[in-house]
Amino acid sequence: MTEVYAGRLSDLLLVRVHGRSSAYLAASRAARPGIVEACRREATVPDLAERILSRTIYAQSASRIAPLRELVQNALDASPRGAAIDVQSGLGGTEIIVTDRGRGMTADEVLGDLLVPFRSGKEGEELAIGEHGIGFFSALEIAPRLEVKTRTRTEGHLLRVEPLGKGPPYADFAWSLRPLPHVEGWTGTSVRLLLDEPISRSVLASEVAAAASFVDPSVARIYVDGVLINIARTRMRRVSRAHVGGPLTGPLGELTIWVGRGDGALPHVTITQRGLLVAVRQDLFTAPELSLHRDLARAIVSAGFGIVVELPPEVPLNKGRSAVAAHASAAVESALIAAFERFVLHDALYDRELLRAVDHRLSSVLDRLLCAALAGQPTQPATASAPEELTEATRSSKPWSLIPPSSSAPPESERRPQKRPTVAAPEEVVRFADALLDTPAIRVITIDDEHEQHPRIVTLRHLLGAYRAGTLRPMGEPLLAGRTYVSLDDPLADALWRRLVATSAAAAAASSQDRRGRRIGALAMQRIDRETLLATAKAVPGVDALAAAMTVLEGIDAAISIAAELTPSPISVHQDLYGPDEMAHTDGSGISVNLASARVRALLMSVLQQDDPAAFGALVDLMLHEKTHVSLASYVPHANAEHGASFYRRKDLLRRRLLESMARGIVGDPASWLPAARRGLASIGLPAPDVLAATFQSVPSVAA
Question: Are 16 and 129 in contact (CB under 8 A)?
């Protein structure tokens, strides 16, 4: 057979960059070097083509999975719907062959599309270099020697690529294209990779499965050494969808979430497009304000369920196809949040197999709301904070018509808007938690005055109200009129009941007597900011000194915030809302100090009266501790996030940044502000906790 074309890959790329590829391919073999030299003389960087080639081959694939994915994607693009794609190993594991039964490629397509980085014959813009992915070239990182046999209906060709010089990495590659004899009735392309390092059949199967196991079998059947590997979709179910789009991108199709457990559904979060791997994530949500979403997603994965996020084909990816392109990432993230919330509200609460795996997380999510409810604080209904798409969950097609309109509504006292959420969470988490509370999810039986039984499906908030009213009982106890009975066979109801009983027991123990022999409830006071404190309790002895102390705390918080590039937190004071031993409390609306804590009072008095450096350092450490919670934004803290290694690493980082900023003069020493904070005080002494509590308990509008 006579050679048709031969050359170096860098030459082919160079003439392509300069727009002379057609002239190069049409020229005789003797004339081509002159065209290449002319392009090189015009180039501002003489070795530009070699640099692009090297970066394309060696800088974009993080593992062998990416090149295998590219070869499978090329085969998918070339194959008719429902065709088979074969991946085979040979020569003791040093050979991989990927074969499709598509229409094949002509010589012009091999040279103009396959052998040019960032070029694709599937796109309409011929000169759009840099607008496509790593493609065929990524295979050269794992197999510097390869062959491509391709046949159309009228012609066939054999492409060989071999490295030049020493490597890897190799500076350049030689290519040659020869004709193949025509074979009647067979079209398609076969790519043969000759590996430097052998790969076992099992590893090859697992890596191809990682790259393409979620491809729809109706689109193509992918076999590795005769075994079908794209079976993951058949083991999973589609649970929610959301449209992707934004002002910068326009509409980009519909994102889909799939969930499943078993063969082919690996317990991790996978991002795919057209069923092909884009990325594997440890966490589906990384933003601090999405900690509730992150907790639930982690629980699902930890229970052995796989989550697959299928991106629509219109979503652009980066060059390595390992992430969404930067300009579209915000639109995709918003759609992902919406789809996950719909999944939880419309599906997860009703899937008992799934719920048994995550009920402990849901009960933990409700913990702070329950504590607030049992302490007599009104909880915030979803109608005050949740967007329409979440409140619509209560009106979906689920069998919720069993509930009378008034049966799941919270009492009128719970509908009053709050100044700030009583839950320790950012606004986004509070909104989602409220939607969870207001989604009908638990079956109960109520007994009317005639002892008739009425099955209903009620909201979690409704159960909280029934428990506070003393009418909620577990199934199995004698049926009495006016009671609501819940079956503990339901995993969510069982978790909720255990949480209610445990919280109630703890509250009863705490409300009896503390170690100083006083009633905790008598000193309870809602969080109060400095302006409200001065406006409402100005006449209480010691309030001016307390306001000065809050100014000191605000100065410490401001210094930490500037040093750590965090948003300043509003400072408030409370009394015994979260237990007598807690010195301070952090939530999405700010940091609150427990004025009933003897330790807190001693520190504040030592700082205000004596400028005690040890006491001031302890206050700084207290604020660093709470600010670390703010930076972690953990709604339901885990052991390692609450007081584990990661928490203290973050706290130490904030401390070091504060000290470095003070040393560089970026922030001033907060201790230097003490004289200004004390200016104008007639005496230094904090208000008595019982007097302060009585003052604000008599002002319902402030305490609410």
Answer: yes
Q: Which of 477, 512, 547 is the last residue of a domain?
A: 512
Identify the three-state secondary structure at position 364.
helix
**Helix, strand, coil percent values for the chain (each to nearest 5):** 45, 20, 35
Query: Does a structural domain hold residue 66?
Result: yes
Q: Is 632 part of any domain?
A: yes
Structure tokens at 195: 């590996």
Look at residue 335 and tell me if it is in a domain.
yes
Cα separation, 184 vs 471, whole angstroms:
81
169 & 285 share domain? no
SS3 678: helix
Single-letter residue type at 403: I
40 and 161 together in one domain: yes
Whether the Cβ atoms of residue 440 and residue 459 lie closer than 8 Å to each other: yes
Which residue is associated with the tokens 């196991």? 213
Give the model confidence (pLDDT) of 393-435 as tens digits: 333 333 322 233 333 333 433 333 333 333 344 566 667 777 7
pLDDT(357) > 50: yes
Tell me: do 493 and 530 sit in the same domain: no
Tens digits of per-residue pLDDT, 125-170?
333 333 333 467 788 888 889 999 999 988 899 999 999 988 788 8
Residues 51 and 89 in one domain: yes
pLDDT of the residue at 270: 93
Could you tell me which residues come within 8 angstroms of residue 165 by beta carbon, excluding any fewer than 6 positions away? 171, 172
Do 408 and 452 fall within a single domain? yes
Residue 517 lies in a domain: no
Q: Which helix (H) or strand (E) holds 649?
A: helix 645-663
Q: How far apart are CA 169 and CA 530, in angstroms?
A: 65
Which residue range(s) make up the domain with 543?
A: 522-703
Name the residue type at position 18.
Answer: H
Indicate the residue among 315, 346, 377 that finishes a domain: 346
**75 residue type, one letter:** A
> From edge to edge, which strands make up the β-sheet containing 156-164?
5-8, 172-180, 156-164, 145-151, 188-194, 95-100, 83-90, 220-224, 227-228
Structure tokens at 580: 């007598």
* Residue 256, H or E segment: strand 250-260
If asked whether residues 52 and 70 sit together in one domain, one would say: yes
Condensed to tens digits (0 to 9), the pLDDT of residues 469-478 reads 888 888 888 8
Tell me: do 671 and 555 sit in the same domain.
yes
Whether 141 and 273 map to the same domain: the answer is no
Beta strand 236-246 pairing with 227-228: unpaired
